[in-house]
Hints:
Number of helices: 6
Mean pLDDT: 74
Number of domains: 3
CATH class of the largest domain: Alpha Beta
Number of strands: 14
Structural class: alpha/beta
Order of helices and strands: EEEEEHEEHEHEHEHEEEHE
Strand content: 15-25%
Radius of gyration: 20 Å
CATH architecture of the largest domain: 3-Layer(aba) Sandwich
Strand order of the largest sheet: 4-3-6-1-2-5
Amino acid sequence: MADAAELITTAPRAGEQTLSVRLRALVWEAPGVVSLELTAPDGSALPPFEPGAHVDLKLSDGTLRQYSLYDDPNDTSHYRLGIRAISGGASSGYVHRKPRAGDLLTVSSPRNSFPRVDAKHYIFVAGDISVTAFIPMMREVSHKGRSWTLLYYNNRDEDAPFLSEIKKLGGELSLHSSKAGTRLDVAQRFATVEKDVVIYCCGPEKLMTAVEEATAAWPEGTVHFEWFAPRSRPADEARGSFEVVCQHSGLTVTVTAPAEESILEVLSEAGINVPRSCEHGNLRHLRDAGDLGRGRPPRQHSVGVGTRRQTSDDDLRIAVARSAPRAGHMGQPMTHCDAPPASE
């Protein structure tokens, strides 16, 4: 999705469909932001998707990158991806420099781990390019006759990506800019729990953490986050050793202190083939919602890479996660995964 993390070369997940698409247009939407318009080479309809969905874009060097589909889901003649160039980000830089109209690219079939839940009113909190996750949602909410508010954060209002498109969607737009001195008091804005309101948030960690803290009293299921960059690790995270049990193969591996190796790294060293597109913990399918045994992962309010979204204590991103022992538990905590060994 966002361009905060570098990706590794990897194969698609087993059984996952990939699509050959043609780059029909590359458009500069704002300073440092480009959109890619992708079509089927034969002009046929592309697979349908829901608001909040994303695809993996495979670059020529084999790296995968996740981006939200921000166009109208009712129009499957093409997909549109919005990409910001990030300083030091080889993947986003490649997308900005290399592809040309007419080039053939490879994407995964759409996946949606950030679905919209039903509500009377929606508050979307977005920072910069992360707004792409919400544009289809806002369009759909308007079509259904529901109301929404977008709290949109950027360095400068005039550089906000897709601003003209957002203004046509019919909701309430509130712009906030550090340069203009119009920052929102997040704690004050969400101090009161609002009935029949759902919040969706995606943006820089500082913004998302502020929203997370401000909405701590909101009912479960009313606040959803999509973390598009790796969260800072707590200073006290998992100092001890623990075991990871792979349910598919029965193999048990031990993750030892100090907390420098992630579960993903230890599994890979043991020959366990775990699908992944990065090693920063911000990918939607890098999570284990299975039996977590006697241990539980650090709580992360994000889905996959989103994280879209609301996550529970069972949402474990092994690319960055270690295990946090339960209070009062003596001995080694244990975490389970379902990945088969590489030989399988």
